[in-house]
Amino acid sequence: MQIFTYILMGFLVVCAISVSLSKNLLNSILIFMSYSLVMSIIWILLESPDLAITEAAVGAGITSVLFFVTLKKIHAIMKSEESEEEEG
């Protein structure tokens, strides 16, 4: 079980670094969402289900939805899709 915890913690470090280095905002949100889900699994392993539920609901749920809505409002999602179509 310790090995699984270490793998999850390593994945957290990889997610944190990749969010910082990502140029695409949509990819950053998806990586952040996966970070929150892995963190909620770690909270379950630490026998703290109340924090796990909160992390999953707020971190992966509400915050990610707010980020998606913000990207849509500033038209960042459409711009990235249009630039990919022009390049390809």
Q: What can you tell me about this protein's structure?
A:
This protein is mainly alpha-helical and 88 residues long. Helices cover 89% and strands 0% of the residues. It is built from four helices and no strands. Helix 1 runs antiparallel to helix 2 (25-45) and helix 2 packs antiparallel against helix 3. The longest helix is centred in the last third of the chain and has 25 residues, at 49-73. The mean pLDDT is 86.
In brief:
89% of the residues lie in helices and 0% in strands.
Key phrases:
flat; 88 residues; mainly alpha; 4 helices; 0% strand
Secondary structure layout plus pairing:
Layout: H1 2-21, H2 25-45, H3 49-73, H4 76-87
Helix pairs in contact: 1-2, 2-3
Q: What share of the residues does DSSP label as strand, in percent?
A: under 5%
Backbone structural class: mainly alpha
Run of helices and strands: HHHH
- The proportion of residues forming helix, as a percent range, comes to over 70%
Overall radius of gyration: 16 Å
Number of strands: 0
For the termini, the CA-CA separation is 45 Å
Shape: flat
How many strands, what sense, and barrel or not for the largest sheet? none
**Taking all residues together, what is the mean pLDDT?**
86
- Report the total helices: 4
Which regions are unreliable across 5 or more consecutive residues at pLDDT < 50?
none
